[in-house]
C-alpha cells in the first residue's frame, strides 16, 4: 500500500503522513521525487525512517518513529506546523482510518467503544486543510466487517473529505458519482462490490 501511495504522489508535492501505516510512504518515495514531507510535530523535508547509526532520539516523526532529514530540512514550533495544516499549505495528507463512507466521510480517531482510547491528533486539521486526503487501510476488519461503508457508524473526523482509499484489495476513488475502482488485487469488481455491499464503478465507466 505504501508503495502504491508513493507512486501516485505528484512530483514536488507537499505531503503530511499520518501516524501508523502512512509513515511507510516515506520509505518508498524516489530520491528524485522532490516531495516535501511535513510532520505535525514541526519538521519540513523529512526523509525515510532512520536505521542503525542514523537514529537520533531527538529526530522523530509525529508517531515518535526515528526519521532522517533531507537537505534543506527545517524545524519549527508545533503551533506553526498546525497553522500550515489549517492554512491549506499541504497538497496531500495520507491517513489511516477505522471507516470511510461512500461519500468520503472519515472516521479515524475513535471506535466509540467505552474502553477505547481516543487519539485524534492532527487528523481533523489535516482532513479539512489538505488539498487531497488519501486513506490507507485494510478493506475489512479482522472479523470481516467492511471498513468502506455506506455511512460511518464511528465518530467522524471529517465530512466528505476523503478523495482516495488505498487498501489491500483495491485502490478506490471517492467521486461525486460514487465509488470508482482504479485497480484491484486478486479480486474482481463485482465480487468486491458484493463483499462491501456497496455499488462500485469500474474506472472509466
What this model shows, in words?
The protein is 15% helix and 29% strand. Strands 4-3-2-1-5-8-10-11-12-13 form a ten-stranded mixed sheet, sandwiched between helices. The chain has a three-stranded mixed sheet with strand order 7-6-9, with no helix packed on it. It is built from four helices and 13 strands. The protein is globular, with a radius of gyration of 17 Å.
What secondary-structure arrangement, pairings included, does this model have?
Layout: H1 2-8, E1 14-17, E2 36-39, E3 43-49, E4 67-75, H2 78-86, E5 92-96, E6 99-101, E7 106-107, H3 123-129, E8 132-136, E9 148-149, E10 164-166, E11 170-175, E12 178-184, H4 189-196, E13 200-202
Parallel strand pairs: 1-2, 1-5, 5-8, 6-9, 8-10, 12-13
Antiparallel strand pairs: 2-3, 3-4, 6-7, 10-11, 11-12
Question: What is the oligomer described by this structure?
Answer: single chain
Q: Beta-strand percentage?
A: 25-35%
- Helix percentage: 10-25%
Number of helices: 4
- The shape is globular
Number of strands: 13
Q: What's the main sheet like?
A: 10 strands, mixed
Topology order in helix (H) and strand (E) letters: HEEEEHEEEHEEEEEHE
* Separation, N- and C-terminal Cα atoms: 24 Å
**Strand sequence of the main sheet, in spatial order?**
4-3-2-1-5-8-10-11-12-13
The residue ranges in which pLDDT falls below 50 over 5 or more consecutive positions are none
**Cα Rg:** 17 Å
| Broad structural category | alpha/beta
Mean pLDDT: 93
